[in-house]
Structures are given as structure tokens and as C-alpha cells.
Write a structure and sequence with these properties.
Layout (H helix, E strand, L loop, with lengths): L1 H20 L4 E6 L3 H18 L2 E6 L2 H10 L4 E7 L4 H4 L6 E9 L2 E7 L9 H4 L5 E2 L2 E6 L5 H13 L4 E4 L2 H13 L6 E5 L3 H4 L2 E3 L12 E7 L2 H4 L1 H9 L4 H14 L2 H11 L1 H9 L3
Parallel strand pairs: 1-2, 1-3, 7-8
Antiparallel strand pairs: 3-11, 4-11, 5-9, 5-10, 6-7
Length: 286
């Protein structure tokens, strides 16, 4: 029976490879600088190049450039759009020029985050404790790049709650370095973070409650593409539509990358350790 199953699996993989041969194998994946985005983009690049001889370019750009680039055909696909709330404003101008496909991760989180040792539990409490959350001499919320969706929502939160703090925008790694430094000294700090993210495995953190629901409810992460991608690449579209990850699989992938300090090395290790799951994704493309 094992031999029969092995033969069937091999036949399915051969058929998938033959089907993939008919598709355009030179693709550009648009990425942004979120930990899970970097993780899954490198994972799929390695899988498609090593198994099916694709030539994948990863192009890291701002959110605005990503959506306009997909609409213009500069990129073929991107693996992360949060809906129905977080990325809706980026999608709206291009909704008739892009294809939003199936979701691959459910139950996201997004908002203002503090270490669990912090004495506050809600965003409104920041108003009275703003002076405790200083950064370089000024009450601040540490964020990522100013063009990100979470940065825009944080500006809205500051206005809606009347917070006497300013958002300091930087890169994700710079924000995480500041969080690590404060955490090691048990100092107050408030940052913009999201789930899934490896930080929640590394540190004991909590989201501040958001009674005005500025950051929205839990969402789903979908993959999306330029127009007509599904017609040009039916096999890959089926594979990506059946791709699913959860906290264990995605968290493990991000943890491998963080530990390795390199997305290619970390993703390679994760793929080697999760062959059965990867094969399951690829076989469903038939």
C-alpha cells in the first residue's frame, strides 16, 4: 500500500510539474517589509524555483507602489492583503484592475502593543500616562514606515482618542530593536504591531484594548495579483488558492527566519522540515 501511495504521489507531482511548464515561469512578486510577508514570499520563491524551475524576483516596495505596480502590470502577484478593513483603502482605487484570490491565514490582529508588565490595558489610558512612554525625549508611539496601513490607522487612533503622543515612523527592524532594548530594561514602550508576528513568541506582550475599534476586528490575509493572472497561470492560481497556514506553521516559518537571521536560510530549513505540508499544497493544484 505504501508503494502504491508513493507512486500516486509521484505521478501527481509529475503532472503538476508538466502543467506548470505551460505557464509563464518568470514572475515578479511584490513584497512589503512585514515579517510574515518576507517569510512567505521567500518560502514560495524557493519552492517554485527549486521544484518547478520558475524565475522569481522579489521586489520590496511601499504599499502605494505595490498596488499601483500590480495595476500597471509591473508585478505579477503579491501574497498579502488584509481585508475587509486594513488594506481596503489601498485596494479601492484599483479594485477593477486587480484580482483578489483566496485567503490563506485567518484571525489577524492589529493595534497598539505594550509589554505585559505595563500598568495600562487600554488605548485611552495612554492619555494620562503619555509622559511614561517617551522616546528620545518626547511621548511617542513607535511605528513602522509611514506608508503602511498600520501607520495610517495609528494616526487615526491618536486623533480619535486625543492622545498627546506622536507616532515615530521607522523600519520594522528598527522598531523591534527599540522594543527589545526597552523590554530588557523593563521600561515602558508602546509600538504598532500585528499578528501574525514572531515578536509574540519572543516577548510577553499585550494589545491595548481599542474601544473605538479604530484598528478593526480580526481579518483574513489573502493573496492578490494583476488582472488576468489566473488565466495566464491557472496551475499556480489553484496551488495558491488552496494554500493555508495557521499560527503553528506560519509562526514556525517566521521563527526559523528570525533565528537564522536570513530569510532564505530560514525558509530553506522550514521547507526541509515541512515537506508533507508543502507537498499537500502542491498536490491540490491538480
Amino acid at each position: 500500500m505504501k508503494k502504491v501511495l508513493h507512486t500516486l504521489t509521484a505521478a501527481a507531482m509529475l503532472m503538476a510539474a508538466t502543467t506548470a511548464q505551460a505557464e509563464d515561469k518568470t514572475l515578479v512578486i511584490g513584497t512589503n517589509n512585514w515579517a510574515e510577508n518576507i517569510a512567505v514570499a521567500n518560502m514560495w520563491k524557493l519552492i517554485l524555483e527549486n521544484r518547478y524551475d520558475y524565475d522569481i524576483e522579489l521586489s520590496n516596495v511601499s504599499k502605494n507602489a505595490l498596488y499601483s505596480g500590480l495595476a500597471n502590470g509591473d508585478f505579477d502577484l503579491s501574497l498579502e492583503i488584509w481585508l475587509p478593513t486594513t488594506d481596503a483603502r489601498y485596494l479601492e482605487p484599483y479594485k477593477d484592475q486587480l484580482e483578489v484570490h483566496e485567503g490563506w491565514y485567518e484571525g489577524t490582529g492589529l493595534g497598539l502593543v505594550v509589554p505585559s508588565y505595563a500598568d495600562i490595558d487600554t488605548i485611552p489610558e495612554l492619555k494620562a500616562h503619555a509622559e511614561d512612554y517617551g522616546y528620545q525625549g518626547s511621548p511617542s508611539i513607535l511605528g513602522i514606515d509611514s506608508g503602511s496601513a498600520i501607520a495610517g490607522l495609528t494616526d487615526e487612533a491618536i486623533d480619535a482618542y486625543g492622545l498627546p503622543l506622536e507616532q515615530v515612523n521607522s523600519s520594522g527592524p528598527a522598531m523591534m530593536a527599540a522594543l527589545d532594548a526597552a523590554y530588557q530594561q523593563k521600561e515602558p514602550i508602546v509600538v504598532t504591531l500585528w499578528s501574525p508576528h514572531w515578536a509574540f513568541a519572543e516577548y510577553d506582550l499585550k494589545y491595548l484594548e481599542d474601544p473605538k475599534n479604530i484598528y478593526g476586528d480580526n481579518e483574513t490575509i489573502y493573496w492578490f495579483s494583476r488582472q488576468n493572472f489566473s488565466e495566464d497561470n491557472p496551475w499556480l492560481t489553484r496551488v495558491l488558492n488552496d494554500w493555508q497556514m495557521d499560527d503553528d506553521s506560519l509562526g514556525g516559518l517566521m521563527a526559523e527566519i528570525e533565528q537564522a537571521g536570513d530569510p532564505v536560510e530560514g525558509a530553506t530549513t522550514w521547507i526541509e522540515d515541512n515537506q508533507a505540508l508543502v507537498n499537500e499544497w502542491l498536490e491540490t493544484g491538480e
